[in-house]
User: What shape does this take?
Amino acid sequence: MSEPTSLYPQLEAALLCRDVERKMALAVEVLHGWRVDALPRAEAPPPYPLPEAGRPPLPELVHPSKVPKRSLSNRQGHAALLHAIAHIEFNAVNLALDAAWRFREMPDAFVSDWLQVAAEEARHFSLLLRRLRELGHDYGDFPAHNGLWAMSCKTDYDPLARMALVPRVLEARGLDATPGIQRRLAGIGDHASVAVLDVILREEVGHVRIGNAWFGRLCRQRGLEPEACFQELLRRHDVQLYRGAYNLAARERAGFSAKELDALRALCEDDTASAG
Assistant: This one.
């Protein structure tokens, strides 16, 4: 069978690929092909609902409450924590590929952005996979949950909903969680993983900024007030903003407005008051 020579078949091949390392290579290849004008946006069958993107048989997907605790007091818990982050990055590759493949009404700049994100997420996954293997484990060794991809399915009807709820909510949570994870890893002397998370955090700020920019642009095109639209989408999809520490400096770099940052700061203060 000949290799796909236009964008959408190539994207679909990457999205449906079940082999972990081959998927990562395809994510990088499609970005390169796009950038050298080797993958035109030719006619292709329309996108379709995708209940599950390509993934290997493992990890077993379970309810979030069934995911094992990730204590760093032992080697197993250490590996389980890195596996959980790797699983997020694996799903992020599929999410970025899906955005470029699915929302064909969007301009070339949208495709460029999300292909870049997919390639960077693939690199993040590969860095974490190497660390897992150095600890004697592999991707698939621990159960995981499917929350990120489930949100992809819920937002496959509109790029506005996707930009609102994936980069601005789910991926932005990574900005908040990463510094704490780094402190825990540093506490057990895993400076190699801390360095990997430095790379991931820096680039994830850019990914959330891309989502913020496209959310704002789509709101302007549709004559919608962004903050009211965002709140409406949270209500429609029953998404709750968690209470706890927010990485407000990273979120500011990622393009959250001063008003949004003030609201998140208030959530932090409410949580602190409740704890007191």
Remarks:
- The two ends are 64 Å apart (CA to CA).
- The longest helix spans residues 191-222.
